[in-house]
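dude i think i finally got it to work??
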Amino acid sequence: MLFGSLAAGAASMAMAAPQDGETATDALTLDRITVTAQSREQELQDVPIALQVVSAQMLDDVVARDLSGIDMFVPGLVVNGQQPTQPSFQLRGISTDDFGIGTDPAVGVYVDGVYAGRGGGVLLPFTDVERIEVLKGPQGTLFGRNTAAGAVSIITHRPGSEAEGRARVRLTEYGKQYVDAMANIPVGEDSAFRLNGVFNQGRRLGPGRQYRQGP
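look at this
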């Protein structure tokens, strides 16, 4: 009986070993997040910077139309979009309220590596965004002096070698309408056009007030 128990125990251990190996193999096949926070492609876990990535899937899930719709999902980031022409950004409690021509904001916003400045253009609706990288802490070495608190880097999709297109329509309350479309058109082996369009309009009529947001 003792020999039978030992044999059964050895068999169960032999059967359990492949399962442990399979688990280890599955752990190695996790999704890899590639970022360009240091001006080169790296895996997120290899970047020695306090960094958070907002993917395109997350933007769709939370129905974020611009940067003011993601601050609640990024710890430490506050975006005030009440005045679209003068949006304010706060990261880790650091912000700049002075909008003078001789001052720089504490949080820099970049679109495909190009500085977006202070204008209302930083709150334009998202169009074909691949991901958003939020770098926390001073980033003067990589992005310049206007990133004392951090930087928000928006990366859009690059033109591809395959023809593709998509369109999306959102209809919400108060007659709001949101339509965006994308078309990728290859024109050669190493060149392609990627076209994007957005239509955003909303109306609300009530006693003594009227609200309208145009494209």
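Confidence is low (pLDDT under 50) at residues 1-18.
im so relieved honestly
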